[in-house]
Amino acid sequence: MEKTKKIYEYFYILLITFVSCIISILYHTLSYNTVIPAFFIILIFIIWLWTKKLSKKTLYFLDILNLLETNLIGYLIIFFVSTSADTMIGILCGVIIADVFSFTKSGKNTPNAKVIGNVNTLARLSICLPVPKKQGLSPIIGVGDLIYYSMIITHSIKYQGISVGYISFLLILAGQLVNILFISIIIRKNWYKGFPATLFPGVFFIAAALINNWI
Questions:
Q1: Is the pLDDT of residue 83 over 80?
Q2: CA dihedral 24, 30, 35, 38 (to 10 degrees)
Q3: pLDDT at position 141, please?
Q4: Any idea what DSSP says for residue 54?
Q5: Contact 70, 20 (CB under 8 A)
Q6: Among the listed residues 158, 203, 142, 155, the one whose alpha carbon sits nearest the alpha carbon of residue 20
Q7: Looking at the chain, which terminus has fewer C-beta neighbours within 10 angstroms, N or C?
Q8: Does residue 138 sit in helix, strand or coil?
């Protein structure tokens, strides 16, 4: 049964990554005049849901809003913060390093590690879905990871066009598959505390971008 639970979780990781990237690709057709109001409207609803008691209904609504909002955040970061190739590389590499560090013993006091250690906060800042034979909903992937994927997709489309956006989408999915492979190998280790979902999607994109001059 434990193996079945993990298969469901792995499937969900890929599914959510897929859906999130599709949303990000669709967002590239939106204008600033649409994105900015949408960002604030959804943010207001998310804040309102944070004031509500944690329940399956609340988490399902948060799942939808988090998927929409994370992609809007990624969109805005690329259009207003990442104004150069060096900035983009720096952001992507910095996130990977910080993410990996937060899962080590030395990084136990980082904000990311503290969020993971707080069950209620983790649930609100993740996409949570039902897993057979597990009570309630299980956090599958964090909102920070989805923002990261959105940044990659948005940057690819903005600077290189939709075709590279689709390639980046495939690279993210490939990286996620490698993430899952590593998780399945190390999950039974006593020291296992989780795995950084930005690692291989980020590495794959950065390598491909540098080789093909996408950045």
A1: no
A2: -90
A3: 95
A4: P
A5: yes
A6: 142
A7: N
A8: strand
